[in-house]
Amino acid sequence: MNIKKVIVSLLVIIAFVGMVIFGLSQQRARVKLMREMVPSAMVPIILVPGSSADQNRFDALIQELDEQTENHSLLKVKVDQDNQLHYSGTIRQGDKRPYIVISFQDNDDGYANIKKQAKWFSIAYQVLSKRYHFNQFSGIGHSNGGLILTIFLEKYLPDTSSIDKLMTIGTPYNLENTTKEKTTMLKDLIAGRKQIPTNLIMYSIAGTKSYAGDGTVPFKSVDSGKYIFQNQARSYTEMIVTGVESSHSDLPENKQIVKLISRFMLKPTRNSHH
Amino acid sequence: MLGGKYVNLSRKIMSLNFVQELQQAFRILNQQILVTAVLSVINLVVLDDSGFLKEIFGIDQWLPYFTQIQMIVNSLTIITGVMLIASIAYLMGSKKLDTYSLSGYISVIVTIIFMFPGNLLTGKINEDLIWLSFSAINLRNLLIAAVIGYLIKLIYLKLTQLINARTWFSALMTLLVLLGLFVLTRDDWTQAVIRTLYDWIDGIQGWGILLIPLIAVLNCLLFIFGIDSLLPVSNSDFSDAAIKNLNYVLEGHSVYSIPMPINIHALFDVYATSGGIGMLLPLVIAMWIVNRQHTDIHDLKLSVVPTVFNINAPLVTTYPILFNLILLIPMIISSVVACLIPGILILLQWLPSSVYPTATSTPGPLEGFLSTNGNWVALAVGIINLVISVLIYVPFIKLSNQELQVNKHEH
Fold it and tell me: Which GO-annotated molecular functions does the record name (chain A) (predicted)?
């Protein structure tokens, strides 16, 4: 009789704990799905400059965009080596599509530094998404900034967040390599590609001053992005810009690129899951 | 002195004709109720698209022939449910239980007219209504059938007696009551009235925490007299505040800054309806604790499982809970306490408000936990509410048991 009681109580406890555990995991999945279906009121465009560039890298570009379309607010955030955030500019109350430029005090080139910068980016992202209540963003990365965003998507994008669109401009997915041989970084990025959201709309823009590239980044290196995004992101579009201002450092001010950004990036893609 | 009067009132109400006949009908149909209840649990909790167990164990993913099983069980539940409703109407409508009864027969037909899931004039059936009303055994249907049966029998008895102005008049009056009931049971307008009331209380915020327990009291009162089921269940779709809060949180804002943290859904629905309105899960646990020495608690054991998943018809039909004023007291106290504990914690910001929707068949103590997306304080509150409510119920169940003994002896 006593054994029977013990067994029954054990069964009740096991059933309860089971319902707590399974119920929670199921509810978490459901809430995540609901969150994705309801995009945040604010969907910022986050811009990341390349190596050696500071937080003012995109000023001309954003001024140009503001003149063409409606005026959006601009917040600049610099992450220092101690993970501290330094703000300049503000996000206007009610602005649903502000620009946020995230730059780094240590903005050196090289894979090891890029990895560090991606980590700093993720710290800034978490602080900003909580502070300004957003769970969706669009990304624009110039040069190594595109690598930082890619690494962020592969390693740090929180479960509760999503990205609708990413545009990388002259991003050297295979560093300065002019051959087909893959660098360690490219290999790592390809290894982690399954983590890239499948609903991402991806644009990669290459500048070609000469047939080989934009003077700094070889075209082949930009083109290597296809090994990462193609057949993983919802769409992967590669575009080549030539003509005046198509050298690497001019790209963010290039008139054609400004047009491409205003055409493809300014409006967020709503409910891209369904 | 006052207590004695109260017990007397309870005694009087319990010995009313209607109550006695209803309990007799429930006793006769005991087996049928249990079968329907078992089917209901399987249908609503294990197989239904939004069933609690189906969701958490992903039953549709691994059970072979899931869709077929789902459809068959659903049909069986509807069939047994409708048979049960008809049986109640017949038993309550017939003068003597053992003979063919015309008034019983009429009661069944009138009940079908009342509950027809669709447009009576065109015969067009509304599938949503079938799902809402017949996918599980529900007290509302059984009680409407019982009242219809009882009233039809009254009319029938009067018209078959000496026909004079007086009997005609009283038969006409009863008919009017019946028509009033028909209007009352139309969901659309009762829903509108209650929605307005609920939205008003939710709009108050802060001090609204004092009004929400009143809603709990009102619900318990109506429930004891079998009317709870005339009220639509205020789930999260029903509450404006809940929808606003949910959208706010889904947009990425913090759950601690939602616009309406204190609302009827977040406090009453989530924390104070464990096992249905009136905290019936702690009631059945307390009953089990008090009566565990008795040998006749087999049926009680059987009604525990449905109550865990908020299907309370088997419990309420097996045990004299309806019209039992003695049980009304702990019911009200435990419901109010169960609203207030999370309410105060939410005001203190120690507990996030309940914002995420849960399946209606979610066990009571887990509802707060899941509707906060896994807040451990909410789980603790759910368990504490259960324990406190059981403790509140125990002495009253003892008292109610004594009362029922007295009643038995008197009959």
Answer: hydrolase activity
